[in-house]
Amino acid sequence: MVIHLIAEAATINGTGSAPASQMNADGLITAELVAELAKTATLVPLVHPGDAPPEPGYAPSKALADFVRCRDLTCRWPGCDEPATNCDLDHTIPYAAGGPTHASNLKCYCRTHHLVKTFWGWRDQQLPDGTLILTSPSGHTYVSTPGSALLFPSLCHFSGGIPAPEADPPYDHCDQRTAMMPKRRRTRAQDRAYRIATERRQNHAARQRAQVLTQTAAATDTHGPPPDPNDDPPPF
User: Fold this and answer.
1) I need a labelling partner for 13 at 20 to 30 A (CA). Which of 29, 72, 202, 236 fits?
2) Is the pLDDT at 171 greater than 50, yes or no?
């Protein structure tokens, strides 16, 4: 069994009393149990990026991705509790617009809210401590703090500033034909029925092939080997 826990070093060493949080699950783990589990567990240090420069490229390194997921714990959309391990890592300032691949410009969005933010006119601003300020198309604002702010406040320390987003972005970022909301070719029910039917066809074809091979082998055994032309029938 594999479980992923976030815990302070003192808790792991048995000298602290702060509980641990289990990734991809609700609830806390007591310090006593964490110290016991740590004796045989694989320990991976979580490094705060601090003032580290932005990483090259669009996709963050594993270390940076792990930090952002542990800092956020869940989807950062207000009211959403989808675990961070199931979320996308989104650039607050789009990478194509010069947004850096940096802890101060990355946060977790579940796929649904990632699409809502990208295609439905929402805007977000991210502060160096991970706080998000979201603005709806109607102008209402919402503030989202990282999930670790109460449990592991050290993860929300200043992680370096980035340039502020444009003050007055265009009204519609999605007016180009290439920026379109993805659409399903089939409903979820239709997709499930299609996959079931495909699997049944494949299983039926496999059974037919196995049946043909079995019948061929049986026919060979029934006829037996050809007679020896030098073997004279009795009497000898």
Assistant:
1) 72
2) no
